[in-house]
Structure formats: structure tokens, C-alpha cells
Amino acid sequence: MSDQINLRKNINNFTVEELQKFRSAYKKAMRLTDNRGYAYFAGFHGVPTFSCWHGPQTKDGWPGVRLFLPWHRAYLYRFEKA
Fold it and tell me: Closest Cα partner for 71 from 63, 1, 26, 40?
């Protein structure tokens, strides 16, 4: 395990070339139909039912809200690795 901390570059600070590569990567991911594609990760996040794991679990509360930040950190990490 590495002790290095990786920081994401803010998209507002992308160069024109970086933005083009980013958009191209998303387009490619959206065409994939296996577990590397955008649809797979969107489904993992809850689309099309919008039942994300960190969402409300009961009518009167949001017990999953405490999971929002750690859940999305892991989710984005897996998406970026794919």
C-alpha cells in the first residue's frame, strides 16, 4: 500500500487537451456494455431506480446520509480505476 495521496485536478483547471481527453474517455465508457462501462457504474449507483446505497432507507429518516462521503469516495475510486 502506498503512502502517497492522490489529488484530483479540478475540472475547472483542465487544459483544453485534458478536457478533450476527459470527454473522449467518458464517450468510450458510455459505449462499453460490460463492467467497465458507464452503465455498470451508473447501475451500481442506483440508476435507473435511484436507490443509491447512501440514500434514505426509511420514510422518516436518512440513515444512509452518514455514508454519503465515504461511499462516494470508494465509488469514484473504482470508477476512475476502470
Answer: 63
Cell of 7: 489529488
pLDDT band at 81 (very low <50, low <70, confident <90, very high): confident
Residue type, 15: T
The b-or-e profile of 41-66 (16+ CB within 10 A means b, else e) is beeebeeeeeebebeeeeeeeeeeee
Is the model's pTM score more than 0.85?
no
Q: For residue 1, what is its C-alpha cell?
A: 500500500
Query: Before 70, cis peptide (omega within 30)?
Result: no
